Amino acid sequence: MSPTEDHRIRRHERLRRFGFGFTALVCVAYFGFLATAAWAPARMAEPLFGRAVFTLAMVWVFGLIGLSVALTAAYALMARAKWALLAAPALWLAADRPASAREAGAGVVVGNGLTITFFALVIAATVAITVWAARRTKSGEHFYTAGGTLTPLQNGLAIAGDYLSASALLGITALIYFAGFDGVVYTTGFVVSWPIVYFLMAERLRDIGRFTFSDVLATRLARRPSRILAASSTLVIVSFYLVAQMVGAGQVIDLLFGVPYSAAVVLVGALMVLYVAAGGMLATTWVQIVKALLLLGGVAVLTVLALGRYGFDPAAVLAEAVGHHAKGAAILVPQSITRDPISGLSLGLALMFGTAGLPHILMRFFTVADGAAARRSVFWATLFVALFSVMAIVLGYAAIAAVTGNPAYVSGGAPIGGANMIVLYLAHLLGGDALLGFLAALAMATILAVVAGLTMSAASAIAYDLYVNVIRHDEVVPDARRLRVSRIATVFVGGLAVLLGIVFARQNIAYMVGLAFGIAASANFPVLLLAMYWRGLTTRGAIAGGAVGLIGSVVLTAIGPAVWVKVLGHAAPIFPYDPPTLVTLPLAFLTAVVVSRLDGSAQSVADRAAFDATVSRGAPAAA
User: Fold this and answer.
1) Residues 68-109 pLDDT 10s
2) Please, what sign has the CA dihedral across residues 380, 384, 390, 396?
3) What pLDDT score does 612 carry?
4) pTM for the full predicted model
5) Positions of the chain with pLDDT under 50
6) Secondary structure class of 613 (helix, strand, coil)
7) Contacts of 133 (CB under 8 A, 6+ apart)
8) How many Å apart are CA 333 and CA 326, to the nearest integer?
9) Contact, 233 vs 550, CB < 8 A?
10) Which 3-state string (H, E, C) describes 493-508?
11) Are 461 and 180 in contact (CB under 8 A)?
12) Which of 264, 281, 287, 427 keeps 20 to 30 A from 209, CA to CA?
């Protein structure tokens, strides 16, 4: 072994140890918070800094968000990425672009000219991006990964644009508006999940894979069964995630333009198919980048206006919210986890580890040149997601303070047009029709960007994992046929998304995203982590563990409160906990380990040899 190779291996080993250490620190801080909230709620209500509204719970949450950003920055510096991080904005600017509600009340003007104008501009911009990208998407590599030519900052913005979905802009503020601090707990889970992706997944995933995360499994294990497992879990997770986006889109268009909900969902589905089928990952990426920039800027403006209404004093916002909310000071401390600690901890597991199993997020690591660029991408994504989450928390409490009781926006104690519209009402109250129109356009841009990423992931699972590598595994499939199958798969996924959006029209969109996270945490995360870090994993163990996580999550969710009671209308659930991640995640790990230990087949010998040949040395994946 050459000195250079030895140095590289030692460096990877050092980073791996620090990555697991930092992961443990984030987990202890987050689950310590959840445990304290569940079993010592009085402690969480203790005031700090001499202000009654600054409870221990509130300070702990912001500390967790700060810790997530600080640890990712520290890890980046330890990985000797300091100068790359500092230079990234300049590199991004200089880089060569890739070559290859019905009736809404007196205070809201439905279909006003500004809203229509902003909406039309969003559609025109995204279609223009798609036309530009379509001219450059000539091969499977460009369709799936945009040619792997994005810079870390570009990809970080695209990851944030993919991750910050309709549930972030609409659902989180709605949760805080109704449930207070329980919505804050939910938001925090989205942020603390990113260090896990950063420390454990991004670089190694990019070094081993090519187009999708299934490449990692196919490199380590028998190709056909591992790709069938990966494609199956991808399609299930994407289906749940798509529900949230389609519901949000239908509600926004219905509210602002009076277009029937079902017709609005069909419109979004058609646009989604156009973006992905024509422009592939290149169009999807730039739609997400534009959306992320607009979203962060628009939410920042609304946050400044909301704080300005109360003298830029966060304590005044919280105090006013306490005075207006029916729960009073209880909105400053966790509530639901105290009543049901098991479900609360289960949700925490789903949010923390679910991001590391989301196929449309994992796919983004293949759009950069190498593993180091993937790692830096996650640093930027963590920073953007944390910044957005802090602003979303402020807006949730500002909505309680400013919108509650206003007859222009609330009727019978509930927001007109649905809870998911509350942030748009806050925008109208603070900035009139102009800000309402801009935020509504942002909501649409958010939804279109995320559904494009989800559709891209699902189409890749069907065309690349199933068609190319399972059905036609013995053939060399030409690029032209790959692209044709991918586009046909895109149309299929678009139709499925429209159907699901109509069926689940009344679901809270943030909650539906939580279900997708639970399935991702149980089905994909255990198998991927073991495949990349444990030599003993075998094909039989991976298939058994992944199947138990996937099937267990779907079945227990179906007989749990979310579906069995709220959708199917039964009086009580068969399985009481929601989501079931506290059961399914450890069960998936245990099954994979036990089956692998008992596996003495010839394939198991090949599986362990594959670990030595690829993962342990960071060799690239096979085609």
Assistant:
1) 998 888 777 766 544 333 333 333 333 333 333 444 444 454
2) negative
3) 82
4) 0.85
5) 81-107, 109-110, 619-623
6) helix
7) 278, 279, 280, 282, 283, 286
8) 14
9) yes
10) HHHHHHHHHHHCCCCC
11) no
12) 287
